[in-house]
Structure formats: structure tokens, C-alpha cells
Amino acid sequence: MMHKHILVVGSINMDIVVQVLEQPKAGETLLGSDAVNIPGGKGANQAVGAARSIGPEVDLAVAMLANVGTDGNGKILKDNLEASGVDTRYIDAVEGSSGIALITVDQRGENMIVVSPSANGKLSPERLKTEMLEDVAIVVMQLEIPFETVEVVAKAAFERNIPVLLNPAPARELPNEFLKHLSILVVNESEAEFLSQVKVTDKQSALKAAHILQSMGVETIIVTLGSDGLVWLDKDASGSLEGFKVDVVDTTAAGDTFCGALATQLAQGTNLEEALNFANAAAALAVTVQGAQPSIPSFSKIEDFLNAS
Ligand code: RIB
Predict the structure, then answer these.
(1) Taking 60 as the threshold, does the pLDDT of residue 46 lie above it?
(2) How far is the CA of 283 from the centre of ligand 1 (A)?
(3) Is 99 in the pocket of ligand 1 (CB under 6 A)?
(4) Domain that holds residue 71
(5) CA-CA distance, 290 to 174, in Å (whole number)?
(6) Domain for residue 58, yes or no?
(7) For the segment 55-89, what is each residue's pLDDT rounded down to a tens digit?
(8) Can the peptide bond before residue 170 be classed as cis, meaning omega within 30 degrees of 0?
(9) 43: Cβ contacts below 8 Å, ≥ 6 apart
């Protein structure tokens, strides 16, 4: 690859989405809408979020290191990434099924998600090749692939002075040695709570959690708070942003859209506050459309929205 690029290492899923009035309780059976298959997966969504948010004159590309399965979904998911501008040369088709996410979305647009990793679970550390890190401006990862792979990629990137943005979802314990290899941690309320042990109820408690996470070794912490915006903390300063007021249809992939757009901005050298504002707008637009990847806005949509706000 000749020009600078963003490397996303993560999952690709086919989301099976059903709309419900309310989320089911344990042991309850509910009738929902017809099921629809929608391309998703935190890694793929973040790659699409990054690719679609690149401006017209910007020399930046997005590549993804990932697995799909040899089932019918594998080709659909890979083709969809290509159509969204993601370089898929490091995506292999491995024997068996592609990742699947079972998603119910309620009338408030909130979701419940269960992921069956399948091919994502077979993304081994050996798949990282040195050349994949050449000309990389930033590495973006989540936790829907084997953790050993995330650790190996983070260490390799760190050793080459490449910043690593981690969205630790689904949340799990993170070893101190691993945290030292990260530059940016993007967490929602529940991930912030899980990792910091601070109950996050508002911006003040989110900032407290961010300070604890920073003390674990990551320089920049961003806590996203849904419609309430976000708080951020880096080595010199901290701040917050309000959420944009929009009509919520489906919150699926809003966080992924945020991470992808943020990575694109940071890879271009935009300062953190400006980059966060852009990513916040992209995430706001994502909640106004149903589904994961269909909801991820283009650069021009984000620009128009920011100009109109
Ligand atoms: O963050 C949303 C994503 O989580 C969905 O697209 C689903 O595939 C799961 O990975």
C-alpha cells in the first residue's frame, strides 16, 4: 500500500435484526418484526465508519485484517466492505460460518446483541504480517476477535510508534502490560464502569472513570454517553461535548461510527477536540437510520449536518 492508511483489526458479522416493542425478559417469548439480515460486526462497522468519513481530497485509505466464513454470508459481507471503500486484501475466508449477531431493537432504538463469533474466533495472531503495519497512521481494534491477536497487534504497533485506538467491546479485563501499548481508549458508560469500577451516571463520574483508566497507562480516554454526549481526557486537558439532538431510530453501530470517524480525523492530524466533534456528529446521524452499516454516514452528510447545527 503506497499511501497512509488506517488498519482495522476486528470482527465481521451478519446481523440478524428483529424489532420489538420492548426487550424480552428472561424466560419470556415475544413476537417481533420480520427478521432482516444487515452487515455488521464492530470491526467491519468501524472500518466502514472510517472509510465513509474520508473527505474527497484526502489521501487516506482503510484496510481491514479479519476473517469471514466460507458460507454465503462471507462473500456478501466482504463485497459490502469493498463497496464501502474498505481494502479487503487481508480478509480471509476460513472454513465454516461467518460471524453472526442476533439483535433485537426496541421502540426507543435501544438494542440487545448476542454475538456468535464463528470465523472471527479463528483470527489468530499469526495472521498479522509486518508489511500490514507499513504506512499505517492508526490501528483500530475492538474485542470480538481472540484477545491474543489484539495483544500481538497492539504490541507490534506500539513498537513501530503507531497509535492504537481500542474500543474494548465486549468489555473484559485488560492486563496492564497490554494497556501500555494503547494510545486511545473509547468506552461507553458500561465499559467505563467495568474497567474503572466507578459507577458512571453523568459527566462528572465519567471523567472520574476516565482519570482511573488513564492512570492504568492509556494517554487518551474518551467516554461516550449516548445522547448525553461524551467526556474526554488526554495528557494535557479534559473536556466534554453535548450530544446532538436527533430522532433516534436505532442506536446499533453508533459507537462504531464514532470510532471509525474519529480514527479518520486523527489519521489526518486533526486536533482531538475537532476530531471528537466530527465523530460525535457522525454517531448522531447513525442513530437516525436502521441497522449497522446502512446507517453509517458519508463525509458529505456529516459536513452538511455540522454546517446546519
Ligand atoms: O456495535 C454493533 C455491532 O455489534 C453489531 O453490528 C453486531 O454485529 C455486533 O458486533
Answers:
(1) yes
(2) 14
(3) no
(4) 5-12+42-97+124-308
(5) 32
(6) yes
(7) 999 999 999 999 999 999 999 999 999 999 999 99
(8) yes
(9) 8, 9, 10, 11, 12, 64, 66, 120, 141, 142, 144, 145
Domain contains 201: yes
Residue listed under C-alpha cell 470491526: 43
What is the distance between the alpha carbons of residues 54 and 303, in angstroms, rounded to a whole number? 11
CATH of the domain at 196: 3.40.1190.20
> Which atom of ligand 1 approaches the CA of 101 most closely?
8
Q: Distance between terminal CA atoms of the chain?
A: 37
Q: Could you tell me the distance, in angstroms and rounded to a whole number, from the CA of residue 101 to the centre of ligand 1?
A: 7
Q: Output the CA 252–ligand 1 centroid distance in Å.
A: 7
Query: For residue range 90-135, what is the model confidence (pLDDT) as tens digits?
Result: 999 999 999 999 999 999 999 999 999 999 999 999 999 999 999 9
165 pLDDT tier (thresholds 50, 70, 90): very high
* Residue 92: exposure state from Cβ atoms within 10 A (0-12, 13-18, ≥19): middle
Q: What is the pTM of this model?
A: 0.97
Mean pLDDT across the chain: 97
Residue 3: the pLDDT is: 76
Find cell 481494534 and name the residue: 141
Give dist(CA 79, CA 149) in Å, integer. Answer: 24
Q: Is 34 helix (H, G, I), strand (E, B) or coil?
A: coil
Q: Tell me, yes or no, whether 35 lies in a domain.
A: no
The finding on whether 259 has its CB within 6 A of some atom of ligand 1 is no
At residue 107, the pLDDT reads: 95
Q: Does the C-beta of 143 come closer than 6 Å to ligand 1? A: no
253 CB less than 6 Å from ligand 1? yes
Q: Is 87 a catalytic residue?
A: no
d(CA 255, CA 223) in angstroms, rounded, equals 11
Looking at residue 2, what is its pLDDT? Answer: 53
Residue 104 lies in a domain: no
Report the domain count for the chain: 1
